[in-house]
Amino acid sequence: MVGRNDPCPCGSGKKYKKCCEGKQQTTALTVFNEEIENVLQTFYTNYPERKDIREFMELVKVWAPKLEKKLHRELVEAVALDEYFFHKRPDIWTGFLKRMEKKLIRPSTIELLKSWTTPIFFIGTVESVEDKYFTAISALDNQAYMIQRESPKPIPIGMRVFSFLLPDGSKQENHVLAVSTLIFFHKEHAISFEDFTASYKASGLTIEEFTQKNHLLLWEGLVENGYEGEEFTPFEQDVLEQVKAFLVEHSIENDKLLVTVEDYLVEQQPTARKAGAIAAGAIRFAQEQNYIDKKFTVKEIADSFGVAASSLNKYYQDLLAFQVKAS
Length: 327
Fold this sequence. Notes:
Layout: H1 21-46, H2 50-67, H3 73-88, H4 90-103, H5 107-114, E1 120-129, E2 133-138, E3 144-148, E4 160-167, E5 175-178, E6 183-185, H6 190-203, H7 207-224, H8 234-249, H9 255-268, H10 275-288, H11 298-305, H12 309-326
Helix pairs in contact: 2-3, 3-4, 4-5, 6-7, 8-9, 8-10, 10-11, 10-12
């Protein structure tokens, strides 16, 4: 075994600790994380098995009539699947873990799987965001969790979040990952989380007992409050639709612009009086950044969206500042 102060075996002439030790640790961590991801992917690829499909679909039949008036069938089935695996038939999940333990070699992964037997039902509020994790506070017991980010897309402070959580293997307290569905909700849906929490506190049950019996109650409350599975608020969607309509009208295709505007809306949450002001600012931003080939005057853009040039320029400047901050 190479000591930290020994010459590095790569032949660089440096001490091991100053050369390849960190690289090997990084490689080991990468392999560990890939193995974790493979375990989860294997589960959702192979389950529910054919013999369990009918039982799962019976659960969907109970959930769908209460949710499909607002939610897409795919989302209903996704959240019902978590309910099926972790509340109705946890034996499927725990049985899978035991089988995987016998197939795995790495002791650290086997140890981690032993801590996965009971995923944590989580609803809460985003408190802070870092590169690899975001901190969310549970609405049910005020516990703080560091949840692994699944993408670099912005996560605004104050967003509500739902998921079933598992320890992430980092061995740091309350550092977790989402076992399957990780869903964010805009602040306008906070009342649904508050109502669900109030019902839990009035029930006299433990969190586990209450959520096992009343998971559907959360989604019914969200639907009643107008949730439609949307990623954006109605105002944000209006901005995006106006940008898309302008691009279509002028035969312009530019996904890069749409991604930038989406990130800007989610992270900055601008409070314009008119959605068209932001959309117009986005078109000037795209033009000045050479995202699009066609050229329009500021007046032409402003007139297209029915807004003042001063409003257009405000959000053009905002987008420029956002781009600098994000880069």
